[in-house]
Amino acid sequence: MAFDTWLIFVVTVFFVSATPGPNMLLAMSHGIRFGLRGALPTMAGLLLALGLIMGGSAAGLGALLATSEQLFSFVKYAGAAYLVWLGYQAWRAPVSERMGSDSDDDGVAAVSNWQRFRTGFLVAMSNPKAFVFFAALFPQFMRADAPQMPQLVVLAGTFYVIESSWQVVYAFGGAKLKHWITSPLRQRMMNRFAGGSFMAAGVALSTVSRA
User: Which of 25, 82, 117, 199 is the most buried (most CB within 10 A)?
Assistant: First the structure.
């Protein structure tokens, strides 16, 4: 892979990952609730799911989803329903009197590492368009006359570095915002914002097509 081709890929992924979507919204909302440290299991779940999506796309699952209307619709509506449910949970989340304290452990005990990891994993896996996206993106930057696996490793590794960096940025921003949300009113406002955003993302996901 030529260096200039790789640089174009870096710029493309940089802006794609920076765009606020369900993954980044979750990283930020968990940063608000649990602090940067507490959001690490969430980010691990997000990244594992993205790794599986990239692997599945390379194995042909992206092409299958692109050609099978029934399979694409099933994954799409299941993912949309999960995002709406997650939004409903965030909308109704209780407020905490300790929100905004200096500890990153506020509220962490109530939601285990596994629960946060699972939420991150399911949110990232909920979008069938991601499979199609990777199946369409990677070949644009790969040489057909060169070994495929080394190129896939470089592209996937680059994507991981950029994506994880943006997740940390969003979670860190959420953790800083946490110290501003000290009143129950502000907490409720943020809960409504996060919940409404997840529900809107679910509705938007239900309208996407394979093309």
Answer: 25
Residue at 210 is within a domain: no
- Mean pLDDT computed over 127-142: 79
Among 45-54, 58-67, 199-208, the least confident range: 58-67
Task: Identify whether 9 is part of a domain.
Answer: no
Q: What is the dihedral of CA 169, 171, 177, 179, to 10 degrees?
A: -120
Tokens 């790789």, located at residue: 6
Q: Count of domains in the chain?
A: 1
Residue 12 included in any domain:
no
Q: Is the pLDDT of residue 77 over 90?
A: no
Render the burial of 171-198: b for 16+ CB within 10 Å, e for the rest: bbbbbebbeebeeeeebeebbeebbebb
pTM exceeds 0.85 for this model: no
Compute the average pLDDT of residues 146-157.
Answer: 87
The neighbour count for residue 211, using CB atoms within 10 Å, is 5
Q: Domain span at residue 177?
A: 24-205
In a domain? residue 3:
no
